[in-house]
Amino acid sequence: MRLNAVIICDDSESNDLKPLFSNLMRETSNALCAYKDANNIDLTLENLTHERVDVQSLSERLSNVNQNDFLCYVYSHGECDKVQMDGETIVSTTTNQYLFSNALIYTFSCSNGSELADVLIDNGAKLFVGYTDNAWFTIGCENEYTERIAMTFVNSFLNGNNAQKAFEDLKESYNNVIFDDSLKDPILKGNLRKNRDCLTLKGDGNLRISDVKLN
Amino acid sequence: MDVEIIYIDDVLRPEKNAFLDDLEGTITDAKQFDNPSKGLDYIKENIDKNIIVILDWRFANCSQQGADILNSIYEMSALVPVIVFTGANIDVTAASNMFKGHAFSCLSKDASTQEITDAIEDAYLRIQNDIRSVMSRWIQNLPSDKREAPYMSYKDKTYSLNDLLDSIRRQDEIGKELTRNILGLAAEMFTNNLKK
C-alpha cells in the first residue's frame, strides 16, 4: 500500500523566506518518513522546489497522483487567488486548479485560504488548511517560533487526529507563543495573533490520515 | 516631564516666550527656531526623543506656512504632538487644515502660562499613553544590533525593527497593521484576565 505526498516549496535564492520554507519541507519530509516507518507502508514523496517545477511540470507531476487521495503541503508565497513560486504563478483560481482533486492540502502561505481554497475544494480537493489574509513570518533566530507552530498541524494529523483537531492544535500552538510570559516581544505576539485569527479550514474536518485511501 | 519643547515662530519675542522660562526645570529642554526649515531639521535629527512642537501658524516672508510645517512634521512622525500657537484669526479653512494636518491642539498667543502648561501636559500624556508611542519606545530601548537585523517578513518584504519603528511613526499601511495587531493582542489579554 502506498501513500502519495507532494511538498511544493519555494526555495529560490531570491526568496527571503527560503530558510523557513526549506526547513518546513525538510521537517515535513522527516515526519512523513517517520509515519511510513511506523505504519509499514510505502511512501512516494515528491519535493517540488523551484528548480523542479513550473506551471507545466506541476500539471504533469500532480496528474500522476491525483487519481487517489494524496497529501499536499505548500510552503510558498501566495495571494488570495494564487500560489507563487519564485515570482511565477503556478496555481491560481484559473491555472492548475483542477489538479488538486483528492488532495488533502496544508499550506503555510499568505491569503490563498480565501478564493483559491474555495476553488480547489469545488474542484475536488478534500481538505484545505491555510490563511485567509497576509501572514507575518518570523526571520532569523525567531524562525523557531514559526517552524514549531507550522509543524503542529503536520504532526498532529500524522499522529492520527482528525483535521479539525489538528487545526485546533495549530491554533493552540499559536496561543502557546502569544501567551508565553517568558517571551517579551509584544510586536511578534501581536503579529502571530493576527496569523492565528486568519487561519481557515475548508473541506472535511473529520478526515484522518487513516481515511486517506492508499493506492 | 521627559520631553523637549520645540518652538517654531518666525518672530521670537522673549516677553511672549515667558512660558518657556516657567517650564524650565519641569521639561528636559526647550529649543526655539525662527527658521522653520532649521526647526524641521532639528526634529528629524532628534526624532528618537519625546518632542512637543509649539508652532506659529502664519509666517511672514517664508514660503512655508504653519499648515506646511505641520504636514512635514506629520510625515516624519505622527507621534509628535503639535500645538498650534497663533494670534491670527483662524477661519474655517485654516481650522480644517489644522485638523487635517493632525494638530494636537490650538492656543491663542494671549493664552496664559497656565493654559500653555496645561496644553503641554496634555500633549505629554498623549506621548506617554498612546500605544504607538509605547511600541516606539519598546523598539528604541532594544540594542541596535537587534533593531537592525531582519526581524519579520510580510507581503514578500523583510523588515527590521528599525523599519517597523519608521512605519509606526509614519503610520503607513504597515504601521497601522502593527498598531491594530498590538491593540488586538492587548484587548484579548485584558479580557482573558477578566474571565479568570
Description of the structure:
The complex is a heterodimer of chains A (215) and B (196). Helix content of chain A is 39%, strand content 24%. With 215 residues, chain A is α/β, with parallel strands linked by helices. Chain A has a single domain (2-207), classed as Rossmann fold. In chain A, β4 (77-79) and β5 form a beta hairpin. The termini of chain A are close together. The mean pLDDT of chain A is 93. With 196 residues, chain B is of the alpha/beta class. Helices cover 52% and strands 17% of the residues of chain B. In chain B, strands 2-1-3-4-5 form a five-stranded parallel beta sheet, sandwiched between helices. The longest helix of chain B has 23 residues, at 173-195. Chain B starts with a strand and ends with a helix. The A-B interface holds A 16-17, 77, 110, 134-140, 142, 178-179, 186-191, 193-194, 197 and B 135, 138-139, 149-158, 161, 164, 177-178, 180-182, 184-185, 188-189, 192.
Amino-to-carboxy terminus distance of chain A: 6 Å
Largest beta-sheet characterization of chain B: 5 strands, parallel
Helix percentage range of chain A: 25-40%
The strand line-up of the biggest sheet of chain A is 2-1-3-7-8-10
CATH topology of the largest domain in chain B: Rossmann fold
Class computed from helices, strands and strand pairing of chain B: alpha/beta
Query: What is the CATH H-level superfamily of the largest domain in chain B?
Result: Response regulator
Relative strand content of chain B: 15-25%
Helix- and strand-based class of chain A? Answer: alpha/beta
Would you tell me the overall average pLDDT of chain B? 89
**Percentage of residues assigned to helices of chain B:** 40-55%
